Amino acid sequence: MGRIGRAALCALVGAVLLAGCAVVEPGKAVPNAQEVERLARPLTSKAVLGDLATVDYCTLLDLGALGDVRLERVRPDFAACMAEVTAAEGRVLLGIGHLSEAPTSVLGQPPDETVSLPHGWKVERFDGLEPGVCYRFLEFSDGVSLQVHATYPEGYPVVPSAALCRLADATIDGVRSWLTTRRVGRLTFREESLGRLDACVLVPEAEVEAALGGAAPVSPEPTGHLCGWGSRWDEPGPAAFLEFAIQELGDADEFAETIGGRPSRVTPLDGGSCLVETPHVHFSATKPYDREFARVEVRPAGGDACAAARALAERIWPALPARPE
């Protein structure tokens, strides 16, 4: 057991065993009582992240922790940060953010490994859940988890799983260090930004159930930028979600359909679901191609998925802020 792990254990077992726990290797500093107490003090997600709705997750990317990599691009989102880096093994896409109540609520199975840390934190590792993806979760003392994943971008050569997991581990180690030593950056939202909304309050649960054709209990996400209803997406059953995101607009002509008074794009998807998107305002004056988007995906109990998605978007779009531009 390392010195930090020993110190945390000492705080947990109490003062009676503290003296015995403080034994260290020759030449190593003995942690004092204040340090032992500090490491044992629980830290919640809000204690280290502050307002969960305005976290700039790109400030948590510590390139120095990744070793010999070159940053190619970085893209902030309401709920995460996506960064592309070039490592010795190839191009890698790193994601940081996507807060959830627990890793199992996202992935639906136990981790391959759990590592306990000071402050009541733990890291949960998922190595072989999906081909070409390595997941890590940093769970805070209140049970809220921050996700890190590493994969390779579409159209690029395959990167070995060992390299992906090495970079995922380095990324989450950098996040841990940042959160305990530095301040988190903040996103700032313009008055009509979707980032100011709570996705779960824009439509009554009964109307979601009507669109899905089945029960649809709500599943809030800690930041408010995403709301889910119904079943998990990796399990059968009716399901829907509303997400606020930042992405490039692309071809505006693709948003040729008008739904709820807004230009919309309707895309049938595999698995019996359908996605409806509408662009909103520019997210940043320095990146004119980046737009805020509202996205609704629906997988109904039966029938036409795109008809159900249109019906739900027809209800939600009028509740969004007006577009001033």
From TrEMBL:
Task: Tell whether Signal is among the UniProt keywords.
Answer: yes
Would you tell me the protein name for this molecule? Uncharacterized protein
Where is the secretion signal located?
1-24
**Keywords of this entry:** Signal
Q: What is the lineage of its organism?
A: Bacteria, Bacillati, Actinomycetota, Actinomycetes, Pseudonocardiales
**What species is given as this protein's source?**
Amycolatopsis arida
